[in-house]
Amino acid sequence: MTPTMNSRRAMAAAVGGALLGGLAFGQEAAAQPAPAPSPLQASCPFDQPTLQYVIRRAAQEDSTGLDNDFWAVIVNVAGQVCAVAHSGPFRESQWLGSRQIAAAKAYTANAFSLNLPKGPLSTAQLYGFVQPAPSGGNPLYGLEGGNVESSLVYAGDYATFGTPNDPLVTQRVGGTITFGGGLALYQGNTKVGAIGVSGDTACADHSVAWRARVILGAVGPGTDKLTFVNNATPQTGGHPRCPNDAGTQGATFPPNS
């Protein structure tokens, strides 16, 4: 690993530690009980140990973004969280706030994807349709305000975050995210859930999620790529560029970019 990568890791750990201090050890967070468990209403497409292995491998293989670590969440087809993991060696290795964002990305990708032939819609594909426009807004302007996430994501014992006993498991936490990092999971022509990844730039989140889905063998038709547009506007649609995005997986680049 290069000195630059080491410094990025150190910066991510420092920011993650600050978030931990503000969120996990505050009196309100400590006083909040874990949500009551509820049964899974559909099977989990991949278990927590598999997700743990896959997100670490995908993060190691990816070189885009800021070289941060990631939270990863899988939801089943019913929208319930069924696996939570992280790529870094400790819970403090990635931003604590990204755990909730990863869950919301997975929820969004599952909620707006369908079985084939209609197929998947990634969170990255939603970006261009939710931006404001001079003529009163794009068709999905305001979508990110829907399915508002629940306080369930802040409950429970911090020591269990990212483990098979993560208090998010079995919960339907909602949230609608409209930038890269959420992808539907498929077995043949059938949607079986979704994965959400968060912890770096939106483009790196998408890239790592794409790698993870390939490793899992759950890609489906692959029509849910992130489409880059130089100087993206509400009129052009597409997803804006990110720092160090040249190697983004599952992306379409504009000519001469």
Descriptive notes:
Helix 3 (48-61) packs across helix 6 (202-216). It contains 6 helices and 6 strands. It has a 4-stranded antiparallel β-sheet. Strands 5-6 form a two-stranded parallel sheet. The chain is α+β, with helices and mostly antiparallel strands and 257 residues long. A hairpin with a 2-residue loop joins strand 3 (182-187) and strand 4 (190-198).
Characteristics of this structure?
257 residues; alpha+beta; two-stranded parallel sheet; disordered N terminus
Number of helices: 6
Please outline the major beta sheet. 4 strands, antiparallel
Strands of the largest sheet, in order across it? 2-1-4-3
Secondary-structure element order, N to C: HHHEEHHEEHEE
Tally of DSSP β-strands: 6
Beta-strand residue percentage: 5-15%
Q: What gross morphology would you assign? A: globular
Mean of all residue-level pLDDT scores: 85
Counting helices, strands and paired strands, the structural category is alpha+beta
Low-pLDDT residue intervals, each spanning 5 or more residues? 1-31
Give the distance, in angstroms, between the N- and C-terminal Cα atoms.
Answer: 27 Å
